[in-house]
Amino acid sequence: MDRILITGALGQLGTELVPALQEVYGTDQVIATDIHNGGQLSENTRFVVLDAMDAKTITQIVDREKITQIYHLAAILSARGEQNPHHAWELNMTSLLNILELCRNRSGIKLFWPSSIGVFGEDTPRFNTPQYTVMNPTTVYGISKLAGEKWCTYYYKKHKVDVRSIRYPGLIGYRSLPGGGTTDYAVDIYYKALEEERFNCFLAPETKLPMMYMPDAIRATLELMQAEESKIRVRSSYNVSGMSFSPAEVAASIQKHIPDFSISYQPDYRQGIANSWPDSIDESYARDDWGWRQAYDLDSMTADMLENLRPRLARAI
Ligand code: NAD
Ligand code: AKB
């Protein structure tokens, strides 16, 4: 029987991954942890306040609970990372290395660790970015994710740690707000469209980035983790791409539902980060190895986001 530990479980991804894992493995088999309390997880969730850098306590939980899968989500994202680069490096690296070491010393633990399109840089091919290509990230977040990918490959090759990873694009969902990334505008825009019918975007209108709707991201994660070990050829991190769009394109998609919605643009330091990231991603390794196929495009995501967000915002008033 699988037993699951999740770090950083109260963030944008964890808020959706925890219920999905509870659904698959059973609520009692899933232990959600984060450095603070008070997220939006269901009341019956087994929750522990835990600093992801606290290797000793993580080891105790893993041994006591006979954990077989770890989803290590805790991290500082791209935009917030630039505010305090040393802290971002410390958290993103130390926590991963501690958990890789823990997995090395226990047999039978599968580790999921998310990477990001942040590993790519200005000299990476911008369109249909290949799985294996030039990677010179410009942010501390990107540097930490690229180093993390190398460590994952190292622990797989040297110590047979079954670590699996996805280079997520910007994730968009209605259950929680994002936590300090460059793609956060693509979540905020839906909230502002419903609340105020206008949005001031921190990226320029034509800035196209790879994005993915959360149901696709959760399904990709579960499918990768459930795939047979022999099928996983990539032990750094898999390129996956849901769709690519710019702020102007998502605004036009929203206007199909809210015709009076307007958008203005005031690019800030995050524009430089976005300019260093790809426009679109080649996901053929994920397709070939574990059968990955996206379900949502921009318009189907917009329809679903607005349908689900509208009653949630109405309830919050
Ligand atoms: P988030 O910022 O929303 O959540 C991160 C969580 O980590 C927060 O709940 C925070 O409280 C927690 N945390 C911070 N410091 C901690 C510590 N010391 N110990 C334990 N928990 C701590 O981020 P997210 O969007 O949920 O991202 C989760 C993972 O997915 C990250 O590794 C991120 O790099 C990756 N990712 C996310 C996206 C995206 O668009 N959301 C894209 C690519 C990769
Ligand atoms: C960010 O913008 O930092 C994240 C990511 C793409 O990793 N959403």
Helix tally equals 11
Our estimate of the beta-strand percent is 15-25%
Average pLDDT reading: 97
CATH fold description of the largest domain:
Rossmann fold
Please write the CATH class name of the largest domain.
Answer: Alpha Beta
- Rounded to the nearest angstrom, the radius of gyration is 19 Å
Low-confidence stretches: none
Main-sheet strand order equals 3-2-1-4-5-7
Distance between the termini: 42 Å
Annotated CATH architecture of the largest domain: 3-Layer(aba) Sandwich
The portion of residues assigned to helices is 40-55%
Which word captures the global form? globular
Structural class: alpha/beta
In CATH, the homologous superfamily of the largest domain goes by the name NAD(P)-binding Rossmann-like Domain
Number of strands: 14
What is the gist of this entry?
The protein has 317 residues and is α/β, with parallel strands linked by helices. It is built from eleven helices and 14 strands.
Overview of this protein structure:
The chain has 317 residues and is of the alpha/beta class. The protein folds into two domains: 4-170 and 214-239, 3-Layer(aba) Sandwich (Rossmann fold); 171-211 and 242-280 and 287-316, UDP-galactose 4-epimerase, domain 1 (Alpha-Beta Complex), CATH 3.90.25.10. Helices cover 42% and strands 15% of the residues. The protein has eleven helices and 14 strands. It has helices at 14-25, 55-64, 78-83, 85-104, 140-159, 185-195, 214-226, 247-255, 269-275, 284-290, 298-316, and strands spanning 4-7, 30-34, 46-49, 69-72, 110-112, 115-116, 162-164, 166-168, 170-172, 198-201, 209-213, 238-239, 243-245, 262-265. It has a six-stranded parallel β-sheet with strand order 3-2-1-4-5-7, sandwiched between helices. Strands 6-8-12 form a three-stranded parallel β-sheet. Strands 9-11-13 form a three-stranded mixed β-sheet. α1 (14-25) packs across α7 (214-226), α4 packs parallel to α5 (140-159) and α6 crosses α11. The protein is globular, with a radius of gyration of 19 Å. It binds nicotinamide-adenine-dinucleotide (NAD) and 2-amino-3-ketobutyric acid. The site of nicotinamide-adenine-dinucleotide has 28 residues, from β9.
